[in-house]
Design a protein that fits this description.
The complex is a heterotrimer of chains A (about 130), B (about 450) and C (about 525).
Chain A (H helix, E strand, L loop, with lengths): L6 E3 L4 E6 L2 E6 L1 H7 L2 E5 L6 E2 L4 E7 L3 E5 L4 E6 L2 H4 L3 H4 L7 E5 L11 H12 L2
Chain B lengths: L7 H11 L29 H13 L6 E2 L12 H7 L2 H4 L11 H18 L3 E2 L6 H16 L3 E5 L4 H11 L6 E4 L14 H7 L4 E7 L10 H10 L3 E6 L16 E5 L15 E5 L12 E5 L5 E5 L6 H4 L12 H38 L3 E3 L8 E5 L4 H10 L2 E2 L2 E2 L10 E5 L6 H20 L1
Parallel strand pairs in B: 1-13, 3-4, 3-5, 5-6, 6-7
Antiparallel strand pairs in B: 2-8, 7-8, 9-10, 11-12, 12-15, 14-15
Helix pairs in contact in B: 3-11, 5-11, 6-7, 11-13
Chain C lengths: L24 H4 L19 H5 L15 H12 L22 H7 L2 H4 L11 H18 L3 E3 L5 H18 L6 E5 L5 H8 L3 E5 L9 H7 L4 E7 L11 H10 L3 E5 L19 E3 L20 E3 L11 E4 L5 E4 L16 H37 L15 E4 L1 H4 L5 H10 L6 E2 L8 E4 L7 H20 L1 H5 L12 H6 L24
Parallel strand pairs in C: 2-3, 2-4, 4-5, 5-6
Antiparallel strand pairs in C: 1-7, 6-7, 8-9, 10-12, 11-12
């Protein structure tokens, strides 16, 4: 699976697509595959503050819950309403299904995140392949 | 020992096959200093007839062939015989929690029916598969409201069962949401015995997570739910209605304005059994689904498109969410809930109403009969089948006289409501006969005749 | 179903049999059908609208209307779709699915017991209080503890009570403390309980043997630790041989040792938690003491403790008065309060006591020995086909992993589902979390050699199927009324109650004219 080159990635398997001072955040294809069928997404509220490395929501499958860690610090400007009725979109198109949009308070934070090739190396190590 | 399906020869052979020289080899992990080398000091092994005799002797020392007017959160209703015939079937009695849906569809479908009937009775959208009882259910309902609103103010009516309030206090201790109690209107007021609406209105604010009332309340009085709901909702607080006498829902309008209903379903075919096991249940509006504690059974299909039932939304629960779970509850009251399911099915749509109306009639008759020789408190307000009687005679003496005639009278309320003076809480159900009520009234009358004659 | 090439095992315990279909009660309901008859009213009729005014119910609740025979058939048919202890072994780990003796059911239904109202006068409740006192005495003797309360309705409720007591104790010493240490092998109720008492959870990684790493524990315990919540034997069935060191490490810093008593079936009559350093613990009467699971409850989770914690036990309690008689007392000024209304699941007290009386000291000890023997027998008979993640001795339960089967794509959950086709309930899958792909097996003492051999035979055949015919196992079960259910849709679009009209697969009645 190709990981979009213009995205950045975290060790907790979130991705962020930055354009200007906004970022779209979602979870990677690797993450959705490990979780299995996603049944519910707990999103933050619009206007909520998020902090880099802290939990901003969660994603549930039938048998597991996974906390979501924000890749950046900022304010939530929009939440993907579609996921409320169709959480399975994350399974079929993880890299297109953004969970929240954040207005970045410190765009420089993105530089310390992994690139697509870093991330691919990272998950290769994790799975031992 | 007759429950153990092995002969000594088999034990010896199995040990040989394992490569152990004696059973002690399998307990070497226990440090020697902690190994018991003596028999436990418990009674010697008894034959089955001895066990039965032991409990029969104990049962003899409990009340037998007494007329009882006790209610107060545990109600004496008739238990249709088929309840025990069915729940004692091994497939229900000795079955495990239905985590493996393919081989527990019996349990799961019965729970689905239970959930449906609870919704129908309470006017809520969703119901869970049971909580321990009405008191812990109320405590969990409060915690649920706190989670939903993110607020920590809690208001509880003083007319909620005193032991429920104690339990809520125990649960709230370390969670930062101690409850404030709201008074009731005194006797003589137009809405005597009901929650003081002015006091409630004053107490509710933007920090209030929930208002909790019981209806019918501890005094047997039915609260004005729509008005209470409005007061709570105006400030964004949730309304929790606690129901201790489930049979009332046959004739009392369901609390549809509530956000959460916490009910004790013991009245639906569960034996009094000196206080437990009973059957709590939580029901709520659909939007609070994810904050609902306890197990939930949902309908779905299998790979061939056949309908089946399954435990669902388990991510709320302790075995997945662990410290972030909605509750730590694991084992619930499943078999007792099955008893209530059978009861509700037996009485059905018409029977539930007829049963409730009979209870209403008996309660009325008893209140009139006994009220003639004492003072019926809160008489102005609508009641179900319980009432408070105030007498000149102290309850202790009154109840002693009744006991001489093999009657257990109303519950002495002094330790919880000293402001009511010599007051007792009485209950009459469909099982209380006219003769029993008349006999009790006659005895209560004796002393009032005597004091009138002085 | 079965592929034509590849090994398919032979089931010995079961064969296929027709079971009745049965829709929801609502789908069989018909207006006017009745399953009840009340005695006629012997007091004047009332007009509900007049008595209740606006509080009167206008609608009728949508409950089904059925006759008695339909109700008996309905629930009887449903019951035949369930597996149960009465049908065969449940190898579920840490559940202790032992025989539920029928005499327990009989005595709990005796009139003076079943019909006792909790508020009836004490002098008419002496029988109930005697039962409570004897059960308490027996359980204190069994656990080696000094005091006990029977109120909690289940294990989780007992844990909650025990942790509240722990907190109250620490508070009385001036520092309520901040955290509770919980091994990563613990049951989910442990961290959930700690959190509900306002404690932070500190996870303790198990050592290479799956037990408590005492050195790691010592590093993590400090004056902010309230307690360690320990299950002993652990959830992998291993006794913590360093238990005295564990207790010392905690007590040194004033922390308490809480024991989750779920696995008491390995200890009764052989050792006592009170003797090896436990300060407070709970029991599960629906596990160790034979009270029935009933499809998920009721349970009973008494909490027992050492003398120094007695002041914090819940109220009320049965005490011997100066008059030599038993009385209910609430004279416990430092009590954590009431944890539920009335006195507890009294019906379960009766059943547990009947179990203890039926066993006596020799029966209780023999029970524990047989439980441990059975688990070790299974371990010996399966260790060549299933991977043992730990080589430490097992007590009453054994944990394997699916490591050898996963190579062919077969996971523990699949083996468990295939076990159903062989006539058994699955063992515990995927728990404890410290073992990847766990198979957690606890036979209990109630299994005969025959049943154990049938289980072993089934598991060995499935191991071979996993090797030679994995698809068969992955798509199991094949023999049940319902195959694997779509849990994803059940969670995404929850349907939690019936709403008419009847489901698509409702029974259709043949018309009289149908030709045979």
């Amino acid at each position: 699976m190709a990981y979009p080159a213009n995205y950045r990635y975290t060790r907790e398997h979130e991705w962020i697509e930055v354009y200007g001072k906004t970022g779209k955040v979602g979870i990677t294809d690797y993450a959705q595959n490990s979780l299995g069928d996603i049944v519910f997404v707990e999103s933050p509220k619009v206007g909520a503050a998020v902090k880099k490395g802290e939990i901003f929501g969660s994603v549930e499958s039938v048998k597991a819950v996974s906390d979501l860690y924000s890749p950046v610090t900022g304010t939530v400007t929009e939440v993907n309403e579609e996921l409320a009725s169709s959480p399975e979109k994350i399974n079929t198109a993880a890299h297109d299904s953004w969970i929240m949009k954040v207005e970045l308070s410190d765009p420089a934070e993105v530089d310390s995140l992994m690139t697509a090739s870093d991330y691919e190396k990272f998950i290769a190590e994790e799975t031992g392949h | 020992m007759r429950y153990l399906p092995k002969s000594d020869a088999e034990r010896a052979e199995m040990l040989r096959e394992i490569g152990a020289s004696s059973i002690d080899d399998l307990f070497t992990a226990i440090p020697e200093e902690y190994r018991l080398t003596r028999d436990l000091k418990v009674p010697r092994q008894m034959g089955e007839s001895e066990i039965v005799d032991y409990f029969k002797a104990a049962a003899e020392k409990n009340a037998k062939v007494y007329t009882s007017f006790l209610g107060a959160g545990a109600y004496r209703h008739y238990r249709p015989v088929i309840i025990d015939s069915l729940v004692q079937r091994g497939e229900f009695l000795t079955s495990y929690t239905p985590y493996q849906a393919e081989i527990t569809q019996g349990t799961l479908q019965a729970i689905f029916e239970f959930q449906t009937m609870i919704c129908e009775l309470t006017g809520m959208d969703i119901a869970n598969a049971s909580m321990y009882d009405g008191s812990t259910g109320a405590a969990e309902a409060v915690m649920m409201a706190v989670r939903v609103t993110g607020r920590d103010g809690v208001l509880v009516a003083k007319t909620v069962h005193p032991e429920y309030r104690e339990v809520m206090h125990t649960y709230a201790q370390h969670q930062g949401h101690e409850a404030l109690e709201v008074a009731y209107y005194p006797d003589g007021h137009a809405q005597a015995g009901r929650i003081d609406l002015e006091a409630l209105e004053q107490a509710v604010n933007e920090e209030t997570a929930c208002v909790l009332v019981q209806s019918p309340n501890f005094f047997g009085v039915v609260e004005d739910i729509p008005v209470i709901a409005e007061i709570a909702h105006k400030k964004g607080a949730l309304l929790i209605v606690s129901i201790a006498e489930a049979v009332s829902l046959g004739i009392v309008r369901p609390p549809v304005e509530a956000d959460i209903v916490s009910m004790e379903a013991q009245s639906f075919g569960v034996a009094l059994s000196y206080g437990g096991p009973y059957c709590g249940v939580l029901a709520a509006k659909e939007k609070y689904l994810r904050q609902m504690p306890g197990r939930l059974v949902g309908e779905t299909k299998d790979s061939e498109g056949r309908r089946g039932f399954v435990l669902t939304l388990s991510t709320r629960e302790q075995h997945i969410r662990r410290e972030k779970a909605t509750s730590n509850i694991c084992t619930n009251q499943a078999l007792v809930a099955l008893m209530t399911t059978i009861f509700m099915t037996v009485y059905g749509k018409q029977g539930m109403r007829e049963l409730a109306v009979q209870n209403l009639a008996k309660g009325r008759y008893a209140a009139d009969a006994l009220g003639a020789h004492g003072k019926l408190l809160f008489g102005q307000s609508p009641r179900f089948h319980e009432f408070v009687l105030q007498t000149e005679e102290p309850p202790k003496r009154l109840n002693a006289r009744l006991m001489e005639n093999k009657i257990i009278g109303g519950l002495d309320l002094r330790k919880w409501y000293p402001e009511l003076g010599n007051a007792t809480l009485w209950c009459a159900t469909e099982l209380t006969t006219k003769e029993q009520i008349d006999a009790a009234a006659a005895i209560v009358a004796e002393i009032s005749v005597a004091s009138a004659a002085r | 179903m079965a592929t034509t090439n590849g090994f398919v095992g032979t089931t010995r315990k079961v064969t296929a049999h027709l079971t009745q279909n049965e829709p929801l009660s609502f789908e069989k309901s018909s207006p006017g059908k009745k399953g009840y008859k009340l005695a006629p009213l012997d007091v004047p009729e009332v007009d509900p609208a007049a008595l209740l005014g606006g509080a009167a119910r206008e609608d009728e609740p949508g409950l089904p209307e059925l006759s008695e025979i339909e109700i008996i058939r309905h629930f009887t048919r449903l019951s035949t779709w369930n597996y149960a202890i009465d049908l065969g072994m449940y190898p579920l780990g840490s559940c202790t699915m032992k025989y539920n003796p029928r005499v327990n059911e009989f005595v709990s239904r005796l009139e003076g017991i079943a019909e006792a109202h909790p508020y009836q006068p004490e002098r008419l409740s002496r029988g109930a209080m005697v039962i409570i006192k004897l059960l308490k005495d027996c359980l204190m003797e069994i656990t080696g503890m000094d005091a006990i309360a029977l109120h909690p309705a289940a294990g989780a409720h007992g844990e909650f009570t025990g942790m509240l007591m722990t907190r109250a104790y620490h508070q009385s010493k001036g520092n309520p403390r901040k955290s509770v240490i919980i091994p990563d092998s613990a049951h989910g109720t442990n961290p959930a309980t700690a959190a509900s008492c306002g404690y932070q959870v500190v996870n303790l990684k198990s050592n290479a043997q799956g037990g408590v790493d005492v050195a790691a524990l010592a590093k993590v315990v400090n004056e902010d630790t309230a307690a360690l919540m320990l299950t002993n034997p652990s959830t992998i069935g291993v006794f913590e041989s360093e238990i005295h060191k564990i207790a010392d490490v905690l007590h040194d810093k004033g922390a308490l040792l809480y024991m989750d008593g779920a696995n008491m079936n390995a200890l009764v009559g052989k050792t006592r938690p009170g003797d090896f350093g436990v300060d407070v613990m709970h029991l599960n009467l629906h596990k160790t003491f034979s009270t029935p699971h009933g499809g998920g409850g009721p349970g009973c989770g008494p909490v027992a403790c050492k003398q120094f914690l007695e002041p914090f036990l819940p109220i009320p309690f049965v005490a011997l008065g100066d008059d030599g008689l038993l009385h209910w007392s609430s004279d416990r000024p430092q009590s954590i309060g009431r944890v539920r209304m009335f006195y507890g699941n009294f019906g379960m007290f009766v059943r547990a006591l009947a179990y203890i009386l039926a066993n006596g000291p020799d029966g209780l000890r023999q029970t524990t020995e047989d439980a441990v023997l059975n688990a070790n027998y299974i371990r010996k008979k399966l260790e060549d086909v299933y991977e043992l993640p730990y080589d430490t001795p097992s007590m009453h339960e054994v944990v394997f992993s699916d490591k050898r089967q996963v190579k062919n794509g077969v996971k523990t959950g699949d083996v468990a589902k295939r076990l159903i086709d062989y006539g058994f309930h699955p063992y515990t899958t995927s728990f404890p979390l410290i073992v990847s792909g766990a198979l957690m097996i606890e036979p209990t003492e109630s299994e005969s050699r025959e049943e154990l051999d049938l289980f072993v035979d089934a598991m060995r055949q499935i191991a071979r199927e996993a090797e030679e015919n994995p698809e068969l196992v992955i798509s199991a079960p094949h023999s049940t009324r319902i195959s694997r259910l779509d849990e994803t849709t059940a969670a995404r679009k929850p349907v939690l109650r019936w709403k008419g009209p009847p489901a698509d697969d409702a029974l259709e009645v043949d018309t009289p004219a149908k030709e045979w």
